[in-house]
UniProtKB/TrEMBL annotation:
<dbReference type="Pfam" id="PF12849">
    <property type="entry name" value="PBP_like_2"/>
</dbReference>
<comment type="similarity">
    <text>Belongs to the PstS family.</text>
</comment>
<dbReference type="GO" id="GO:0005886">
    <property type="term" value="C:plasma membrane"/>
</dbReference>
<comment type="subunit">
    <text>The complex is composed of two ATP-binding proteins (PstB), two transmembrane proteins (PstC and PstA) and a solute-binding protein (PstS).</text>
</comment>
<keyword id="KW-0813">Transport</keyword>
<feature type="signal peptide">
    <location>
        <begin position="1"/>
        <end position="21"/>
    </location>
</feature>
<feature type="domain" description="PBP">
    <location>
        <begin position="197"/>
        <end position="314"/>
    </location>
</feature>
<keyword id="KW-0732">Signal</keyword>
<protein>
    <recommendedName>
        <fullName>PBP domain-containing protein</fullName>
    </recommendedName>
</protein>
<keyword id="KW-0449">Lipoprotein</keyword>
<dbReference type="GO" id="GO:0006817">
    <property type="term" value="P:phosphate ion transport"/>
</dbReference>
<comment type="function">
    <text>Part of the ABC transporter complex PstSACB involved in phosphate import.</text>
</comment>
<feature type="domain" description="PBP">
    <location>
        <begin position="32"/>
        <end position="154"/>
    </location>
</feature>
<keyword id="KW-0592">Phosphate transport</keyword>
<dbReference type="InterPro" id="IPR024370">
    <property type="entry name" value="PBP_domain"/>
</dbReference>
<dbReference type="InterPro" id="IPR050811">
    <property type="entry name" value="Phosphate_ABC_transporter"/>
</dbReference>
<keyword id="KW-0564">Palmitate</keyword>
């Protein structure tokens, strides 16, 4: 009888231990992700990505004073990827996996080519370009190469495919073969243009689409060289049309990851060309270890970026 009691006691103890262990596993599953202070990362005030994000989430001018400022789109991805408590925002063209970050849904919608083009993903913005004034390139061949490049990137079947492959969203239904479009530039395209350098400036978010386009176009246009001096959307107009257009940071084509301002501070009326070449999405990102957060609403993002919500476990 005593032996039976001892056996039953041991059995009950084992069952209780197993039950407690199982409960512990369940609790861990419910608290996946990270806890503690939220580390907010932001871009500098000249960034088109920052402007688009703050306007889209409706907290322009109310960013928390504790936000950590980063220098570029790539820097944002790298910094959040190195901080398990971090949150920031990047272009959809960002290599999320390489940087160790996860893209969050916005209002339950995943950012994708389809959701951007059909408008269901709301945090989106245009990629714009603006050039120097006609006759202000130093020589006619460079001016014609700039015209040809922009035509290739935004209107040709081949150019639009490159932009799309590198994260820009485009409507390819109106594209034409480059063989057809290039005829009007035959004189300059057939020359040896290796002594000419085209310089771009402005937004850092456009780097991937613009660099890929320039790399593909140069061999088709006399092997001109190019230099990319991307520092932020706010530098696009000043460096091609404004006070810096003849200085050390001058550019031939300026890019912005937002619409150009119409308040007089970004006058593009004298540009040889200006326009939009694709659409991009702005995506909220967190560290890949933060698996407990996959989607945030406008209200939740606003609460985080204005400093109202300070800890991950307090997100409601």
């Amino acid at each position: 009888m005593n032996m039976w009691k001892k056996t039953m006691t041991a059995t009950v103890a084992c069952l209780m231990t197993f039950s407690l262990a199982a409960c512990g596993s369940s609790d861990e599953g419910k608290t996946a992700g990270v806890s503690g202070d939220i580390k907010v990362y932001t871009r500098d005030s000249s960034s088109g990505t920052r402007e688009a994000f703050e306007k889209g989430v409706d907290f322009e001018g109310s960013l928390t004073k504790n936000a950590i400022e980063v220098s570029s789109n790539d820097d944002m991805a790298a910094k959040v990827g190195a901080d398990k408590n971090g949150i920031g925002y990047t272009s959809l063209s960002t290599d999320f996996e390489k940087n160790g970050v996860s893209a969050l849904q916005y209002e339950g919608v995943t950012a994708s080519s389809e959701s951007v083009l059909d408008g269901s993903y709301k945090l989106q913005r245009p990629f714009m370009y603006v050039t120097r004034a006609a006759g202000d390139y130093g020589n006619d061949d460079k001016e014609q190469l700039v015209q040809a490049f922009l035509d290739f990137m935004q209107n040709s079947t081949e150019g639009m495919a490159i932009v799309k492959k590198n994260g820009g969203e485009v409507d390819e239904s109106k594209a034409k073969p480059w063989d057809e479009l290039s005829k009007k530039y035959e004189a300059v395209l057939g020359k040896d243009n290796s002594a000419i350098t085209i310089t771009t400036c402005g937004s850092t978010s456009v780097e991937k689409t613009v660099k890929a386009s320039l790399e593909a176009f140069s061999p088709m246009a006399g092997n001109f060289k190019f230099t990319m001096n991307q520092s932020g959307s706010g530098d696009a107009v000043p460096r091609v049309l404004g006070k810096e257009k003849d200085g050390p940071n001058k550019g031939d084509i300026g890019f912005a990851s937002r619409a150009f301002k119409e308040d007089g501070s970004e006058d593009i009326s004298k540009a040889m060309e200006s326009g939009q070449y694709c659409i991009d999405a702005v995506v909220a990102v967190v560290n890949k270890e933060n698996t407990g957060v996959t989607s945030l609403t406008q209200a939740q993002l606003k609460s985080i970026f204005t400093g109202e919500t300070l800890k991950w476990e307090d997100i409601k």
